[in-house]
Amino acid sequence: MFQTILLLLVARFLSITQAAPAATALPIVDLVDRENIQLLEYSLLAGKAPFQQAILQSAAFQNVNQIPGNFQQEEAFNGFLLLLNVSTLQEARQLPSSALVQANIRQVGASAYGLNTYGPVIDGLFAPGIPGKLLLQGSFDHNLKLMLGYNANEGLVFTSPFLPNDTSYDDYFESSFPSISPRVASYVQNVLYPAPSDNTPYEDNIGRASVTIAESTFVCNTIYLERAFGNQTYTYQFSVPPALHGQDVDYTFFNGPDAAVESDATAVALQEYITSFAATGMPSGPSLPRFPLYGNDSRILNLNATSITEITDPIAKEGVYGGRRRCTIEGIRKQTCYRKGQQKQV
Fold first, then answer.
1. How far apart (Å, rounded) are the C-alpha atoms in residues 116 and 118?
2. pLDDT tens track of the chain, all 346 residues?
3. 27, 159, 214, 252: which sits with the fewest CB atoms below 10 Å from its CB?
4. What is the DSSP string of 192-222?
5. Pair 303, 237: CB distance under 8 Å
6. Cβ neighbours of residue 247 under 8 Å, at least 6 residues apart?
7. DSSP state at residue 190
């Protein structure tokens, strides 16, 4: 099955992307930001994406508040020079690559929990704008077919375990969104993701931060892609416990018994959906449940260890996460999830 996937990727010019788990090296990491950006970039500069279908797993587009401002970029640059014990870029260029690699490792290792200091930047050419804004503007290849996936517990891998109180959550939030304004930060911290209480879906600030990161970095981006393509996409939620970010990689590239794979049947089913989508643009299998279009009813597949079922996308359901929460057009502009209501689901 693994070899079949690779052959189909080549044959159909299909882009498959997977955002990289924190502090984990994966063989497909190099594809992540480049291919996600190409989904948007080629429509502006080359006219058409270099692939016909795209599978985006855990689509981690940066939003406007996660991109470092000039001050943060200058601070990172000066910090790198300090680690090299030089004072200019020209001096740094004269050093051996081994010194640069070591300085990079030290700087990234000292990043805030779940972050890496460095990431994609908007250069106006290859990356002409923030992905969420390009999707809103319609600046992408509309002829692509998309299969999207996100995990039920995306945020925990990137969440610091050292968040004992509201102040520590606020500090962690602001380090994760360095360009956010105080007004927007207050809205997110107090309205979208208020302090833990009986009316929130989380019991502590670790859970609060995990939900914040999951929705702002992964889940909302999936919604934005679905809406940009007129809800004519195929979406699944990976729910095999604990359903952490990156856990579906072992299922995607399953090639026989693997301790990291709890359900061989689920892995094989996911691969059948992927290979059929690569070949035909429609995920299916002779003995598999129907894979619905997302559509106006927000229908997706839920993949867990014991079954594969069609459900309504949890982010679009009434009462999910303590209130009616959805990624709205306002959310696309602000690149954040918007929540209405405070009635807890029972």
1. 5
2. 443 344 344 444 455 666 654 433 222 223 334 445 455 554 444 557 788 899 999 988 766 666 777 888 899 999 999 999 999 999 999 999 999 999 999 999 998 888 888 877 777 777 788 888 888 888 888 999 999 999 999 999 999 999 999 999 999 888 888 778 889 889 889 988 999 999 888 999 999 999 999 988 898 889 889 989 999 999 999 999 999 999 999 999 999 999 999 999 999 999 999 999 999 999 999 999 999 999 999 999 999 999 999 999 988 764 434 333 445 544 434 444 433 333 333 2
3. 27
4. ISPSSSTTSS-SSHHHHHHHHHHIIIIIHHH
5. yes
6. 151, 238, 240, 260
7. I
- Provide the edge-to-edge strand list for the sheet that holds 15-18: 15-18, 53-57, 145-151, 234-238, 299-303, 308-312
Pairing of strands 53-57, 15-18: parallel
Please tell me what DSSP assigns to residue 99: H
- Residues 120, 40, 112, CA angle at the centre, nearest 5°? 25
**Would you mind telling me the total number of residues written for the chain in this entry?**
346
Per the listing, tokens 């939030």 go with 173
Extract the tokens encoding 4.
Answer: 């079949």
Tracing tokens 């029972």 back to the chain, one arrives at 346
Going by the DSSP 8-state scheme, the letter that residue 117 receives in this structure is S
pTM score of the predicted model: 0.79
Question: Is 236 exposed, middle or buried, given 0-12, 13-18 or 19+ CB atoms closer than 10 A?
Answer: buried
Helical (H) or strand (E) element with 56: strand 53-57
* Residue 339 in tokens: 């929540």
What's the token pair of residue 8?
């189909």
- ∠ CA 185-197-177 to the nearest 5 degrees? 20
Phi then psi for 282, rounded to 5 degrees?
-140, 115
